Amino acid sequence: MRRSLMAIMVLVGIFSPRFALANSIGLNFTGDRFGGGPYPILPGETAGIVPQANWNNTNPVANGSTADVVSPVAGTLVDNTGAATGVTLQWLNANATINTNGGTTTPNERLFRGAVEGSFFAEPSAQLQVVVSNIPYAHYDVIAYVVGFGFTADSSVRLGSQEFFYNQSSNFTTDGFIKATATTHDTRTLATYAEFDNLTGTSFTLDLIHQGGNRPAIDGFQIVAVPEPGSALLAAVGSFIAAVLLGTRRASRRQLG
Question: Which of the listed residues 76, 136, 176, 223 has the most CB atoms within 10 Å of its CB?
Fold first, then answer.
């Protein structure tokens, strides 16, 4: 039993590196049309499919850049610890900022409440683009949050060669976290976020593409560092040591009893 427990903890440490020692950068687009706002995520609050604090909040502007980040630090993107990162961004080709139909009570609801909405360009041109540069992580995942306005919309989100198709939700409070997994338009289902894994390079571009119905939209995104193998190994070693200590203590108690 003790050996099985130790083996399991070692495997968890190796194969779940995102949740061990991971840094992240989160950006929350805010909106102020059709529902008030803006609704920022406060620095001490935790939100996202990979929970983090210190979300960066933007002004409610249709097209903007790093200069439109208003908090926690104006004009600067910080990471989950609150440290400045040097990351820059620009979002363009947008129609307007809007609010979705979700609530505003929890940090996750506020992440999905405000959105930047794309335009109606002829397919397959990107109706909305988010360009991010100076990424400090050697390997990382990107999570795009894609709830939109309250009309039916078929959309896709693309990063490099990866593209996911989905029916756009308009209410996170009702629908919750649903991952987009369809790689063709015909297999699309309802989704509220998409994930792009195992990325490298110091920049990327997110394309939001109109496939049918209303405009595509984006609520925010996360860049989640994937630790190097050495960091994952350290996490595994730590898990192993913890398991050994736990087993040793229990054996000592039995002997004393």
Answer: 223
- Average pLDDT estimate for 155-161: 96
CA-CA-CA-CA dihedral for 109, 114, 118, 123, to nearest 10: 0
Q: Are residues 38 and 16 in the same domain?
A: no
**Euclidean distance between CA atoms 68 and 60, whole angstroms:** 9
From 141-145, 169-173, 174-178, 226-230, the region with the lowest mean pLDDT: 226-230
20 has pLDDT over 60: no
Residue 226 pLDDT exceeds 90: yes
Same domain, 151 and 243: no
Torsion 48-54-59-64 (CA) sign: negative
CA 252, chain centre distance (Å):
45
